[in-house]
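We emphasize that the prediction below concerns an isolated chain of 456 residues; any contacts that depend on oligomerization or on bound cofactors are therefore not represented. The input was used exactly as deposited, without trimming of termini.
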Amino acid sequence: MAVCGPRGRSADPAAGAHALTLWQAYQAALGSDPVFASARAGYTAGLERLPQARANLLPWVTAGGSATYTDTRTRFTNELPRRNTHNDAYNYQLSLSQPLFDWTSWQTYEAAKLGVTLTELQLQVAYQDLLLRLSQAYFDILAAQDALTALEAEQSAIAEQLEAAKRNFEIGTATITDTYEAQARYDLIQAQLLQAENTLRVRRDSLEKIIGQPAGTLAELPPGTPAPPPQPARVEAWIEQAEAQNLGVVQAQVATAVAGKQIEIARAGHLPEVSLVGSYGYADGRYLPQGTVAAGGVSDGRQRSRSGSIGVQVAIPIYTGGLVSSRVNETVAREQQARYDYENARREAVRGTREAFLGVNTGLAQIRALEAAEESSRRALQANRTGYEVGVRINLDVLNAQQQLFATQRDLASARYNTLMAGLRLKAAAGQLTESDLDSLNRLLRPVPLSGAARP
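Result of the prediction step, given as a token string:
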């Protein structure tokens, strides 16, 4: 692990050459994120529902057997010798059952097909969630680093202003109030720096939880990098895509279809079941009495038998105590519930798409406004410093101008990352978010310069 300098940047001069890019973080997360790994395991388990349902439509063959040995000993009070009897019996049986008409099993198989589709969609949702969580964690770190950098620059500026106030007080051109004001701002910025460093550490922990390794130095977004606008530029086009492709909407559609199959399964309880059944058996038994006989020999009896059968078995439900009717009523209500869930998912997709679209456009406008505000704040700071030097401005004016500039810089950095994330959420709401979108953002990032220091 690299040794960190005072500002958290790596003391290793080659650290910038190995900055962790967003794409590298994504590759690490694919194999390390426990949330996505859990979703993959659930997907693998869900695929097994189809062969399980298909099994009820295929032949079932069972084999069984038994072996018994019986020893009977009888002794009479006035008869000698006693009489012993031994019996050996061996039985083997093979049974076959093949459904010919089983509507319940058939509809269960059809529902299992839809269940596999639902499982696939759940994995896609988990994958999309991974892309969003990873990007958010990555940009949260960059935002925290920018905030920390701005606070460090503000601390340096306040320290210079504090020294100037002390010198001016000593030569009698300023009051002690200027020194107190600068000292108060310096003490406040110290507390803010501690909070910013803690925030950065917490956000690093969040990313490391996803990628399963130390985050190290991250590639950064160069100042002035333009955020891509939404394409197409019409919110109606995005809403149309969301209503058709949003993963939550598609999931709700499939869930409604599954609920419809459950109705068919419940109604199948009124129908007969027809099966082809067959069996084959073999039995081998021996009867061996022992004792004294006239010829001095022993009698021995043995019996072997084979049997086979094949036929059609029909089971017709007559009365089930109202169970089937109750299940039908339940599944009809469940299907109606699924329809309402679908409508809710559709409306939520529209709301989320509109919110993300507005977030991108508002973010772009906010970036332009904050860039203009940053330039204005920089000029205002310079003017206040000049005014302070000639005596037409007081120290508090300079401190306020410094605070305004650095606060604007922090807001600008935050707006850039928020706008990029809004673009990803817009793609996700429309069901279009893929790894290529992450690759596009990754191309906007640049490694930290070799001379720069890496944040902790």
